[in-house]
Recover the amino acids of this structure.
């Protein structure tokens, strides 16, 4: 992509839609990661004429510094934690478990608010395209991918994001069948 940045999420969604349209995916589902990913995913869903659904991973913030991501969790209890043992020890197992419990409750509340329920239709054997508006640490994205594979049993998984750092792309590569990320700026 010749642009160094996208004008907005609509442009980002249009770029992803053009790339994904070339793949001619007929039996798939677009799985958006709210909030920003929904705008991007809606454009992809419309262009590919595939159903749109959501998965809501939540960041696990450090107990004394909630902005510091030490992991992520999804509604089915899939938990991804940092490999930094020092951070985990400082946070404490009991405190982390309380945060996980709180975040799962919040995920379920949002699933009911956004979707009407917490149960997914049967997506077994489908191609699941996971869409977000970008990646920072990769914790929430990886938690979403792991949960989708566990709960939905897809034929293939494709991660489609308009922008991400190279390190995040590399760290997620082993968890999906394909990654589409047109903009990988260096430095991020």
């Amino acid at each position: 992509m010749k642009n160094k940045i996208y004008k907005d999420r609509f442009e980002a969604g249009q770029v992803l839609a053009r790339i994904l349209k070339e793949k001619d995916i007929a039996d798939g589902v677009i799985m958006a990661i709210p909030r920003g990913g929904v705008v991007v995913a809606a454009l992809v869903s419309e262009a590919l004429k595939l159903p749109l659904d959501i998965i809501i991973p939540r960041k696990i913030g450090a107990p004394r510094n909630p902005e510091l991501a030490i992991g992520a969790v999804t509604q089915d209890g899939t938990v991804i934690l940092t490999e930094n043992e020092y951070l985990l020890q400082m946070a404490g197992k009991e405190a982390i478990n309380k945060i996980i419990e709180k975040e799962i409750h919040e995920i379920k509340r949002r699933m009911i608010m956004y979707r009407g329920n917490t149960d997914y239709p049967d997506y077994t054997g489908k191609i699941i395209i996971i869409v977000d508006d970008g990646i920072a640490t990769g914790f929430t994205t990886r938690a979403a991918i792991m949960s989708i594979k566990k709960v939905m049993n897809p034929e293939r998984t494709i991660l489609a994001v308009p922008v991400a750092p190279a390190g995040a792309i590399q760290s997620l590569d082993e968890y999906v069948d394909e990654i589409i990320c047109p903009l990988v700026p260096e430095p991020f």
